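Hello again, I could really use a second opinion on something today. I've been puzzling over a protein and I'd love to understand its fold better. I'm sending you its amino acid sequence along with the backbone structure tokens. It would help a lot if you went through both lines with me. I've dropped the whole record in just underneath, so have a look.
***
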Amino acid sequence: MARYIGPACRLCRRETVKLMLKGARCETAKCAMERQWRNRPPGMHSWRRRRASGDYAVRLREKQKVKRYYGVLERQFLIYFRMAERMKGNTGEALLGLLERRLDNVVWKLGFAPSHRTARIAIAHGHIYVNGRRLNRPSYLVNQGDRIGVKPSERSQKYIRLAFGDGGPTLQSWLQVDAQNLEGTVVAMPAREDVQIPVEEQLIIEMCSR
């Protein structure tokens, strides 16, 4: 499984927005985006670079921002785009809805993991159950009515409770969670306003449709 293994803060600095790649650390003064001397794009001469102004550059940055936030690479992102094209309604909103439905994103938003990356690790290691069955695919798309729980073992319960105690993002209306039993439920499909980063999805659609 291909994945990005470089420094996470570098991605936030490149996109000039907090992507919450390190969980609670991103809300503290240790975040690179909070430091005046580190909140520039990465690179030796970043202070000399001009702001991207071309149509291609602006659209590319929007696409890269979304890919890095959800932790998907180019090939997988294009698969989601083709799926969104075949769906009814606005293609941009459909694309963001598919990414929101990824299991690793749902596990993070339920508070079972401090970040998308640790959510993927928990799923790959078999700590997460969906509808009572173990599922080790972070890319699984949840549906309305799905129940996301934790493996009934002391080790898994302890592992998830450590992350749950730190608290995650504010629970959204399309999700419900039972903190005592460590079980979440998808009560509705995610809407456009549930996306927590500023993004202009129309620019992404224009880029991918070329």
User: Anything to note?
Assistant: The mean pLDDT is 85. Residues 126 and 136 are 6 Å apart (CA to CA). The chain has two domains: 8-99, 102-189.
